[in-house]
Amino acid sequence: MSDGQWWTYLQAQLEQRGWKPAHLARAAGVSESRISDWRNRGSPPTISNARAVAAALGEPLVPLLVGAGLLMPAEARQSLAAYSVHELLDEIGARYEDITRLVPDSGVKHPTFDGGNPLQLVADSPSGEPMRVQQEREWLSEAERPDEPGPDTGA
Questions:
Q1: Which of 9, 53, 63, 7 lies closest to 27, judged by CA?
Q2: What DSSP letter does each residue of 51-89 carry, written as one string?
Q3: pTM exceeding the 0.85 threshold for the entire prediction
Q4: What is the pLDDT of residues 2-18, one digit of tens each?
Q5: Fewest beta carbons within 10 Å, which of 6, 10, 99, 127?
Q6: Do the beta carbons of residue 71 and residue 62 sit within 8 Å?
Q7: Angle, helices 21-28/32-40, rounded to nearest 10 degrees
Q8: What is the spatial distance between Cα 16 and Cα 19, in angstroms, rounded to a whole number?
């Protein structure tokens, strides 16, 4: 990579979006001094900084690294077999963290197996009948249903 190629790529991305370096710093959670190093010294980013910049720009990490000249196109096309299990798990973990940050934790209830399960209250009917009793009633087959009362045959 030539000196400043990362910054040249970033500058084009910023201009395309009408952003200033300070905007990128805030959006990516990267210090302005780090961005200044990229611009003035031609310093390459760390993987975590590149990932943060990719997320801020809404760009996938690998194409961003290729566009910035940090990764060759041939390297970007490697099969998964080229990576160790540890590297793959790290990438999956990082992506999972990114996705879970986007999901609001607004009182989502998770099932538990104790007596005070809050989900049971949600699933129970207004009459207070537990859901399992309702399901058991619905799961009876025709053969298991009691006979309907009919006329007395006198037998």
A1: 53
A2: HHHHHHHT--HHHHHHHTTSS-HHHHT--GGGS-HHHHH
A3: no
A4: 457 888 889 999 999 99
A5: 127
A6: yes
A7: 130
A8: 8
